[in-house]
Amino acid sequence: MKLTDFTYELPKERIAQIPAEPRDSSKLLILDKETGQVEDKIFSDILEYLGENDVLVVNKTRVIKARLKGTITWTDKECEIFLHKQLWENSWDCLVYPGKKLKPWVVVSFTGTDMTATIESVSEKGRVVTFSHEGIEFLNTVEGIGETPLPPYIKNSTSHSERYQTVYNDTEKSGSVAAPTAGLHFTPELIQRLEDKWVIIEKVLLHVGLGTFANVEIEDITKHHMHSEYIEIDKETAEKLNSYKNKWKRIIAVWTTSVRTLESMSDISGQVRHGSMDTQIFIYPWYSWKFVDSIITNFHLPESTLLMLISSFAWQEHIKKAYEHAVDSEYRFFSFGDAMWIV
To answer: Is the pTM for the entire model greater than 0.85?
Structure first.
């Protein structure tokens, strides 16, 4: 597979800068993965298509305020530490600025808190950083001093940070540096109406890392080195999901994070196991799908692994034509953009 197979032209004005209000008023493109037929709907219209035979699997992760501004203790120089991935209880792999100043054993302090950060070593992404706070104390401190890291293509990076969370996130499952954006379209009212129709909603966990949005940079995509992300499915949820699958209920993954979690934890017999792990699963055309029957997602960046994933789930030519239709029909793209439901 070639990288150039996954590019497309997108006018800048199609990149959403603000979220839809209300959340479920965004557009919804429904794509038949077999025929390529598309329908133009509003997201709240999913009520017309879902019922007691459907299981929505959502990602319960919560986005942390990963951008921390601090001061190098013995020089009073300002710096920035961007939480990238948790390594263990109080240590993170981080992006840092300025890199030349943040060498091993440098200590950083943060205004308004007694928490400090010690640069331990150089990592592939930036620096391994150990914080003096850990657990709930650390998360509470970060919530108080940090900034939500909205994607760089959103120009006003602070005005809508509160909308960069799903309404069903679990505050005890904080750890993502980006939102599972297809979930941003759900409102509490829409969820209640779905449950009133006996639609089942189950939660899994994937902590979204920055690698999710990284472009593939080599022409032969099969040689791409996939990033790693933490995933988790508890025993009760795994047992219920297997029961639903065995009863031929439709498993609908909400955003590609739920897809990667379910497919990573599934075996060739089509059953999911419980537990936790780091996944580096890379899904691209000709992947053998094991568990997911349908996907609700947003519109993805050109040459991204996410675009490759959905091009595996539906015929690649159907995805290409659906994206052309979305551009021509003035759909809004990327994190605060509209949704696509592949059925």
So the answer is: yes
CA distance 111 to 262: 41
> Tokens 């899904």 sit at which residue?
283
Domain that holds residue 314: 3-63+161-342
Q: Is residue 51 part of a domain?
A: yes
Q: State pLDDT tens for residues 93-124.
A: 999 999 999 999 999 999 999 999 999 999 98
The CATH code of the domain that includes 241 is: 3.40.1780.10
Buried b (16+ CB within 10 A) or exposed e, 182-196: bbbbbbeebbebbee
CA distance 207 to 60: 9
CA distance 8 to 325: 12
Q: Which of 92, 111, 145 is the last residue of a domain?
A: 145
Which CATH number is 132's domain given? 2.40.10.240
pLDDT for residue 215: 78
Q: Are 21 and 44 in contact (CB under 8 A)?
A: no
Q: What is the pLDDT of residues 36-80, one digit of tens each?
A: 999 999 999 999 999 999 999 999 999 999 999 999 998 999 999
